[in-house]
Amino acid sequence: MNIPTKFREYIWLLNTIRKAKRITFAEINEKWRRCEMSGGVEMSRATFNRNKIAIEDMFGLIIDCDRKHGYKYFIYNEEILKEESVQKWLLSTLSVSNIISESLSLQKRILLETVPFEKNYLPMVIEAMKRNVRIAVKYMKYGDEVPKNLNFEPYCLKLFRQRWYVLGHFHRDVKDGPDVDFFGMFSFDRILDMSLTDVKFQIDPDFDAKTFFSECYGVLVNDDTSPVRIVIRVYGYEQYYVKDLPIHHSQQEMAQGDDYTDFELFLRPTPDFIRHIISLGNQVQVLSPKWLAEEISQEHFNAFCLYEETDE
């Protein structure tokens, strides 16, 4: 991804101010002159102000000036970058892309994970969300032999485990009964075809995507599993990975032993969460609730049976 010079300039300015916390315009210029992008030329005050406006428009981040303490610039709403926000993801992605685009000579020594960009589905869904129109998709669910034709209101997008998903809201009339409202998650890689309709809809004003998924581990939303308090014990080096990359935003460290750390989470123990815990093998033990520990223990036993020696 080759980022245009102006975008690279915005990213440089944002990262410079973030790293410094508080920085004067003179200090910004000193760093800018040492940067290869500058060509040794100062950043004018007018260019700086234009960049500030562009950054606010693009990232929603406000660069403010503390006039009472030495006219130092800082990011007024930096808390946005501490959350799992679009701004944080976008800035992180562009920053990494910027670094890599300047290091093409090392491309054979930089290995990346691919995030599939299935056809034109992502811009189509975003366009539908902007216009508040329903989308029609032909969807082939795993295990099905025939695709289904679906028509729904696109409420939000979610990226999970390198796959894009769209949350669809359905509003159907049931014969001789009340209206039925429900949601469904659809992976882009299982969509065979997509088109925008002319049918308008109004998103529920009380809908908040972050709140909607707050109790979820991943993208399972139609599961009837209730959220519960879960305590896990993580052993060895895995405890450090879990500390650095929390399993869920609710994760809290409870206690630490000689070679383990106990963590508390509050979420729905849906099948995708259970599969993740199982994938960590003997490095993770569920302490509570008991029923969940027993279920995971049974799954481990079932896996063991697959490899058990037989007389055959």
Keywords:
312 residues; alpha+beta; five-stranded antiparallel beta sheet; 9 helices; 34% helix; 28% strand; globular
Would you kindly provide a written description of the structure presented here, covering whatever features stand out?
The chain is of the alpha+beta class. The chain is built from 9 helices and 12 strands. It has helices at residues 5-20, 25-34, 45-59, 86-101, 121-131, 209-212, 238-244, 271-279, 290-307, and strands at 23-24, 63-66, 72-75, 133-139, 148-160, 163-173, 179-187, 191-200, 228-235, 252-256, 260-267, 284-288. A 5-stranded antiparallel beta sheet has the order 7-6-5-4-8. Strands 10-11-9-12 form a 4-stranded antiparallel beta sheet. It has a 3-stranded antiparallel beta sheet with strand order 1-3-2. Helix 1 (5-20) crosses helix 3.
- By helix and strand content, what is the structural category? alpha+beta
Name the helicity range: 25-40%
Strand content: 25-35%
Adjacency order of strands in the biggest sheet: 7-6-5-4-8
Count of beta strands:
12
Poorly predicted residue ranges: none
Measure the end-to-end span.
54 Å
Query: Main β-sheet: number of strands, strand sense, barrel status?
Result: 5 strands, antiparallel
Outline: globular
pLDDT averaged over residues: 86
Q: Helix count, per DSSP?
A: 9
Report the order of strands and helices: HEHHEEHHEEEEEHEHEEHEH
Radius of gyration: 25 Å
